Amino acid sequence: MNHKIILALLLVPLILTGCMQSKEPELTPEELEHNALVEWFETGMGNEDKFPDLPDYRYYARTIGLDKDGLIQPEMWEIFYNEDININKEIDGKAIYLIRLDPNKLMEIWAENNETTAEDLCRQIGTTPEELYYNFGHTSNSINYAKDHKSGKVSYSDIENEIFGEDNGEDRSIVFGTHFLYIDTSGKYKVTYESENYNFTVRQRDILKATSDVSHNYSDYTYDELHPGYFLDDVGIRRVLKLNIPNLWSKSVEKDIDTDASLMFNMSPYSYGCTKDDIIELYPEIDNEETESEVTE
Fold first, then answer.
1. Beta strands in the chain (DSSP E)
2. Domain coordinates of the chain in residue numbers?
3. Which of 29, 178, 195, 238 is 20 to 30 A away from residue 203, measured at CA?
4. Each residue of 225-257: b (16+ CB within 10 Å) or e?
C-alpha cells in the first residue's frame, strides 16, 4: 500500500480528536434560556402560530403610520424578569417573562404624528409621560370595542383618535397590554406565548386592591383602585388612571362625573410587582473598551 495513503489513514483519528477537543464549550442553562428568548423575538414574533396576537399589532402599526411589522421589532419592546414571579422556576421547570410594547416608544410616535412632544400630549389628557409609562394600558372606551362600537354603544373621542390613532380593527386591550412568555428550562427551551393569565390577574388584584368588576365608569371604582397602591420613582402605581378624555360609553350619560373622564387600566408589568431593575436587555451592550481593543488588534 502506498505510504502516503497509510500516513493519511493514521492521521484521521488525530484530526477527528483535534476537532472534538477544539469544539466550543457548551452553553450554560442561563445562556440557553436567553438564546431562546432572543430567537422568539427575532423569528417567533413574526409567526402567527407562535404569536397569535400578531394581527392586532400589525393593524395598530398601520393605525399610527408604520410599516405592518413596525411594532414587532425587538427594540420596540420591554422585557421583564422578576425573581418573585419566578419563585417556582426550579419546581415548575419554566421561566416566566413579561413583555409589552415600550410606552415611551409609542409616545415618541404619537408625538411625532401630532407634531408636538410627549409632555404636551400627556398634558392634554391630564397626565405626565412618567405617570402614563408606569400605569400604561388601554382606555375604558376600548373595552369590547369592536362589538360595542358596531352596536353603537361606544366610540373613541376626537382627542383619543388624534393621539392614539383612529380605530383600524385592532384590539387595544391586547396592543397596550402586558403578555407572558414561558421558557421550558427543563427540556428543549421551547418558548410559549400567552396573551393573558388568570394567576397574574389575581396577583394584580392583590397588589392594587383591584376588586371591582371592569367598568367604563369612574364612579364604579373604589378609593383604593383610584389611588396609588404603592410608588415607584415617586410615581403612584394604581389600578385605573383618570384621563381627561370624554367617556363615550352610551350608559354613562346618567352621571356627569363619568361622561367627562375616561380611565386607563393599568396593564403594565409594574401592576404585577415588577420594577425597572427587572428589565432585561435582549442584546447586552459590549464594553466599549473591549471593543476598541479588539479593533486595535
1. 77-80, 94-101, 179-184, 191-194, 230-232, 235-237, 240-243, 262-265
2. 27-278
3. 29
4. bbeebeeeeebebbbbbbbebbbbbeebeeeee
